């Protein structure tokens, strides 16, 4: 037996979907505007997870141009059938709802390569796919009701998928509008067949504190579906904002080789008040079956801090699993960029990156020169050694990114008189920029500078050092409570990474990011 501490995947890994092939589990989560998109993780025991690739990992596979923060890839579903992995997902452009839509991709190896998208031609979000034991396949998803009885009433629809043509065929069926009358967003639907009965799992209440998991069942895949009288079958909304995990929902079920059942789901861990800077994370709970219904976290009724996995034979793992301290080299699969692949904006150089400055800034709905990592710990030091011969108005440094309208950057730039360099902290909050502090730098203009973000809960201390062995100086301390989605909106946790910009000017300057370190501190 092994014990895993929740969350299973710390940091911004929302909307988890899971399937098992033989003795191996595969898991994928949402990535919104970040690329590569839809990370694929692998485990043989539900305890230790290894990232093996991404579904969206090549230029041109999907068009991200102009997609604002918290748009992009929403809520995938991963399934396996007859030697092929199928993934359905939604590309969302919140500024242009007519763009994007639901699509399907396939692969014979979950590590990739994955096919180009096959667009399904249906509206809505959170598509899922179900393979029945008669060989038929069914796609289902969520959309707003055309003539709703209440605000944001949604429905789960179902249509058959022709596996030869990868097209939806036959009549459409509306399966579900949620377990609770008046509840918003019955979303994240998944279908299963257990002992001859069809089960529909869905979340509702919105992906925040009112999130909940409900279940219905039917004798036919097309319904009618009856809801569990105990719905919602798992939620933390009745526990209030002061509990350790909030917003529990968006679950997916899997059965282990020993016959046991499990669910992965999302939740958030508030700290420093009702704020969750790490975003929506992936958690694990056991599932049992009683009277023909699934029971989530039996005997507990909530997401536990630790889960015993009887069939696993591994050491106890905690929230730091899946992360690494020290230098994060360019080949690490955790690196992402905004609306582009890291290889589109930077080139590997030893332990670090060559980062050509771009005219775009973090405030633009564009492709900035930014390569970043999810913040996965409440206490962490992120350091970067940077150097560049900067022209006036250009900058290079570290950024803590929530969105275009909310981020903090610690950058090296020229002084106003152009005679030297300074390190400056700029906080963009709700689209308005404010300078929090600056430090004048000594030494040659192209000498390496060490920049750091020292995170201790909601304090983001931004520091700078020049020369070997020099004690870091604090430039400013940013308030993390202004950066999470409670304060800023959207669906994302925080990313921290290297950033460079010419701030709208033509340039040929290339920044040298000698290395980036991610060092958890407890």
- What do we call the CATH topology of the largest domain? Tachylectin-2, Chain A
> Would you tell me the structural class of the helices and strands?
mainly beta
Proportion of residues in helical segments: under 10%
Q: Tell me the CATH superfamily of the largest domain.
A: Glycosyl hydrolase domain, family 43
Number of beta-strand segments:
39
Rg, Cα atoms, Å:
23 Å
Q: Which CATH class of the largest domain applies here?
A: Mainly Beta
Q: How would you characterize this protein structure?
A:
This protein has 522 residues and is mainly β. 2% of the residues lie in helices and 50% in strands. The chain is elongated. It is built from 2 helices and 39 strands. The chain has 2 domains: 2-309, Tachylectin-2, Chain A (5 Propeller), CATH 2.115.10.20; 326-520, Sandwich (Jelly Rolls). The strands form 9 sheets. Strands 25, 27, 28, 30, 35, 36, 37 and 39 form an 8-stranded antiparallel beta sheet that branches. A 6-stranded antiparallel beta sheet has the order 29-38-31-32-33-34, with no helix packed on it.
Q: What order do the helices and strands come in, and which of them pair?
A:
Elements: E1 2-5, E2 17-21, E3 24-28, E4 34-35, E5 37-43, E6 50-56, E7 72-81, E8 84-92, E9 100-107, E10 118-119, E11 125-131, E12 137-144, E13 154-162, E14 167-176, E15 187-194, E16 197-204, E17 212-218, E18 226-227, E19 234-235, E20 246-255, E21 261-268, E22 281-290, E23 293-296, E24 306-309, E25 326-327, E26 337-338, H1 342-345, E27 347-349, E28 352-356, E29 369-374, E30 379-387, E31 395-401, E32 406-414, E33 421-429, E34 432-441, E35 449-456, E36 459-466, E37 473-479, H2 485-488, E38 495-501, E39 510-520
Antiparallel strand pairs: 1-24, 2-3, 3-5, 4-26, 5-6, 7-8, 8-9, 9-10, 11-12, 12-13, 13-14, 15-16, 16-17, 17-18, 17-19, 20-21, 21-22, 22-23, 25-39, 27-28, 28-39, 29-38, 30-35, 30-39, 31-32, 31-38, 32-33, 33-34, 35-36, 36-37
């Amino acid at each position: 037996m092994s014990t895993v501490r929740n969350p299973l995947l710390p940091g911004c890994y929302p909307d988890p979907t899971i399937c098992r092939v033989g003795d191996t589990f595969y898991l994928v989560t949402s990535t919104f505007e970040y690329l590569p998109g839809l990370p694929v993780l692998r485990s043989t025991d539900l305890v230790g997870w290894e990232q093996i690739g991404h579904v969206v990992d090549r230029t041109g596979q999907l068009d991200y141009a102009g997609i604002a923060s918290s748009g992009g890839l929403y809520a995938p579903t991963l399934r396996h059938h007859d030697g092929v992995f199928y993934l359905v997902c939604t590309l969302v452009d919140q500024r242009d709802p007519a763009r994007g839509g639901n699509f399907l991709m396939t692969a014979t190896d979950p590590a990739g390569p994955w096919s180009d998208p096959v667009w399904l031609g249906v509206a809505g979000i959170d598509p899922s796919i179900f393979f029945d034991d008669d060989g038929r396949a069914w796609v289902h998803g969520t959309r707003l009701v055309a003539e709703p009885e209440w605000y944001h009433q949604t429905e789960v629809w179902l249509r058959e998928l022709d596996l030869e043509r990868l097209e939806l065929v036959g009549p459409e069926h509306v399966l579900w509008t949620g377990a609770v009358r008046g509840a918003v967003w019955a979303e994240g639907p998944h279908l299963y067949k257990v002992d001859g009965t069809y089960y529909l799992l869905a979340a509702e209440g919105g992906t925040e504190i009112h999130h909940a998991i409900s279940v219905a069942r039917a004798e036919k895949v097309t319904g009618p579906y009856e809801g569990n009288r105990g719905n919602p079958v798992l939620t933390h909304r009745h526990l209030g904002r002061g509990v350790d995990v909030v917003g529990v929902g968006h679950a997916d079920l899997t059965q282990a080789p020993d016959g046991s059942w499990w669910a992965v789901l999302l939740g958030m861990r508030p700290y420093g008040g009702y704020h969750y800077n790490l975003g929506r994370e992936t958690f694990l709970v056991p599932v049992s079956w009683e009277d023909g219904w699934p029971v989530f976290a039996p005997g507990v009724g909530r997401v536990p801090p630790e889960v015993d996995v009887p069939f696993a034979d591994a050491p106890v793992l905690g929230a730091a699993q899946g992360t690494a301290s020290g230098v994060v080299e360019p080949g690490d699969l955790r690196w992402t960029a905004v609306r582009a692949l890291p290889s589109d904006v930077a080139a590997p150089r030893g332990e670090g990156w060559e980062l050509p400055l771009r005219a775009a800034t973090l405030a633009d709905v564009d492709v900035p020169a930014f390569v970043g990592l999810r913040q996965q710990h409440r206490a962490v030091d992120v350091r970067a050694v940077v150097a560049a011969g900067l022209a006036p108005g250009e900058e290079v440094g570290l950024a803590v990114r929530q969105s275009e309208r909310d981020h903090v950057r610690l950058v090296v730039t020229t002084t106003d008189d152009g005679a030297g360099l300074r390190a400056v902290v700029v906080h963009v909050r709700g689209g308005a920029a404010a300078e929090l502090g600056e430090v004048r730098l000594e030494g040659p203009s192209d000498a390496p500078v060490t920049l750091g973000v020292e995170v201790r809960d909601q304090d983001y201390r931004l520091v700078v050092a020049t020369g070997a062995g020099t004690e870091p100086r604090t430039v400013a301390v940013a308030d993390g409570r202004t950066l999470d989605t409670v304060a800023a909106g959207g669906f994302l946790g925080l990313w921290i990474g290297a950033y460079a910009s010419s701030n709208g000017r033509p340039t040929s300057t290339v920044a040298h990011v000698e290395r980036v370190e991610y060092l958890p501190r407890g």
